[in-house]
Amino acid sequence: MRDDVTPIQYVIEAAKLKYKYASIPIFLIGVSFISQMAFKIDEMKYLALPGIILYLFVNLMLRVYRTLPEAEAGIVSPINGRVEKVEKNGNTTEIYIKKGLLAKIDVRASIADSVNVTDNGFESGKVSFRVINGNFKKFESRSEKRSAALGFFFFSGRACLEIRNCGDLEVKTGDRLVSGVSVITKGKDEI
């Protein structure tokens, strides 16, 4: 297992986001408890149920991989999701990925190369990744490691992974991808 690709500050940032979004359900549960105990208002106990459900939803939605298995040589998936469509245009291959609402939120470098992170994705000499619709927050501006955490992709959305001079694809439409683990194409990942 490699925990060098997910520095502790990313895990702390994810925890801060959980607390920020979980403050409302925690408040609902607190109000329910206090009104039940202090004021004997029996109807307020039903306020705790939506609070608990919302709290569980927030915890499921804002998950991050802390450690990853060693990735094979080649290009790996930058996000969690399903392959929606694969298009070949000359010497480039575009892979459209749909991220679900409860999929883990981490965005990872797809290639062991100099990766420049932009406001809506990243790019290197061979690979570029862009968020088509969704909310992307970057942490790093550059990375040299494959599977290194680059930022968060919140909620659901679509993204496109463009690979130039792509070899044989290991994925097809409908495949489930795991960020930093699922191999898109094997072989050498140098330019």
SSE inventory with pairings:
Layout: H1 8-38, H2 48-61, E1 74-76, E2 81-89, E3 92-99, E4 106-108, E5 115-118, E6 121-123, E7 127-138, E8 142-143, E9 149-164, E10 176-177, E11 183-186
Antiparallel strand pairs: 1-11, 2-3, 2-10, 3-9, 4-9, 5-6, 5-8, 6-7, 7-9
> How do the helices and strands follow one another from N- to C-terminus?
HHEEEEEEEEEEE
From the alpha carbons, calculate the radius of gyration and give it in angstroms.
Answer: 20 Å
Q: Span from first to last CA?
A: 27 Å
Query: Major sheet, described briefly?
Result: 9 strands, antiparallel
What share of the residues lie within helices? 10-25%
The parts where pLDDT drops under 50 for at least 5 residues are: none
Silhouette = elongated
Our estimate of the beta-strand percent is 25-35%
Whole-number mean pLDDT: 83
Number of strands: 11
Structural class: alpha+beta
Number of helices: 2
Descriptors:
single chain; 191 residues; alpha+beta; nine-stranded antiparallel β-sheet; two-stranded antiparallel ribbon; 24% helix; elongated
Detailed description of the structure:
The structure is a single chain. The protein is of the alpha+beta class and 191 residues long. Helix content is 24%, strand content 35%. It has 2 helices and 11 strands, in the order ααβββββββββββ. Strands 2, 3, 4, 5, 6, 7, 8, 9 and 10 form a 9-stranded antiparallel β-sheet that branches. A hairpin with a 2-residue loop joins β5 (115-118) and β6 (121-123). α1 packs antiparallel against α2 (48-61). It is elongated, with a radius of gyration of 20 Å.
